[in-house]
Specification:
The protein has 90 residues and is an alpha+beta fold. 16% of the residues lie in helices and 47% in strands. Strands 1, 2, 3, 4, 5 and 6 form a 6-stranded mixed beta sheet that branches. The two termini are 19 Å apart.
């Protein structure tokens, strides 16, 4: 599976500096899009992440990413071509 990360900061809580551009990171959420060998597209929204206020790159913890992959893998069993899932609801 491949994934793409995009982000928009939701809160103004400073958490660090972006290693890509040096911008301030804020606690927020992001979404990730995955496709797999079954041609299923899975979008997971509301993923907790630190998001750069300048370049919008998002950084999630390993624990959060493990949960995202569990969510994505659960869709493999379905016959859907496109799934939009919320991190908190899953």
């Amino acid at each position: 599976m491949s994934g793409t990360v995009t982000g928009k900061h939701a809160e103004r809580t400073k958490t660090g500096t972006c290693p890509l551009c040096g911008g301030a990171l804020y606690a927020g959420t992001t979404l990730m899009t995955f496709d797999n060998e079954l041609n299923q597209i899975v979008v997971v929204k509301g993923i907790p992440a630190d998001v750069c206020c300048q370049c919008e790159e998002a950084y999630a913890t390993a624990q959060v990413l493990d949960r995202v992959h569990q969510i994505v893998n659960s869709v493999r069993k379905t016959q859907t071509d496109l799934s939009l899932l919320s991190y908190k609801a899953a």
